[in-house]
Amino acid sequence: MSTATAPAHPLGTLAARRRFNTSMRAKGVPAKVCGRCLAVKALSAFPLNRSKADGRQTTCFLCVSAVNAARRSDPVKRAAELAQERSRSEAYKRRPLDIGDGMLPKRCLPPTSGGCGQQLTRGDFPRYRAAADQRDQWCRDCKAHKDADRRLMHRLRLADHWEEQGIFNCHICAGDFSEDDEIHIDHVWPRALGGTDDVWNLYPAHALCNMSKSDADPWEFLPRTLADAGIDFHAAYRAKP
Known about the structure:
40% of the residues lie in helices and 9% in strands. With 241 residues, the chain is mostly helical. The chain folds into three domains: 14-72, Wheat Germ Agglutinin (Isolectin 2), domain 1 (2-Layer Sandwich), CATH 3.30.60; 102-166, no CATH class; 168-238, DNA Binding (I), subunit A, CATH 1.10.30. The mean pLDDT is 82.
């Protein structure tokens, strides 16, 4: 008696995915296949990675989140990660910091790795004790660009989340945003009080509202400010589904 085997996925191999993604780039289609779930998605569904030909990682946001969640939920892996982090931290603290090497030559990583490839001096690179020369791989300008890219992607993901949740107003004063307003990302529960960077704790706010709130306890601050807009904070909170 023979058993039927499931047909192989046409994009199940690395070579097939590379051919598919190369074809998409050649045709100008802003899409690629995820290396984990094998789904074809828009480039915006993938984290930024300047070292890749299309500027995106090979795994989509959803798969990255799933992998990270699985790793955090595994107590054995989590304990091993924490032990490794402590070991690196101790080694970092024991490592002496060289002084007077700022004029020695050092080349930034090539453009394929997100750098500029220029021959500079070590003084043009941020300190990074874990490296052999105690300098970062990217020069200060390239490092600033990478940090700006990460911040932009974080803001874009938040904007999509807020739109899905129907959040279009300042969560502190409940006022609308104008084109000239500077929008801040406010931690509802401040980091100074143990708040996290999770999306459920991040809401849009006017710059002045955010600065006036500062690190105040939201259960004390928000009822007063929303009362000025005619909103009963506690009634609105109880009415949430």
